[in-house]
Amino acid sequence: MASWAEFAAAEPAFAGKVADRFAVRKHKTLATLRKDGSPRISGIEVEFGEGELYLGMMPGSRKLHDLQRDPRLALHSPTEDPPDQRPAGWSG
Question: What is the C-alpha to C-alpha distance for residues 54 and 20, in angstroms, rounded to an integer?
Answer without folding.
Answer: 15
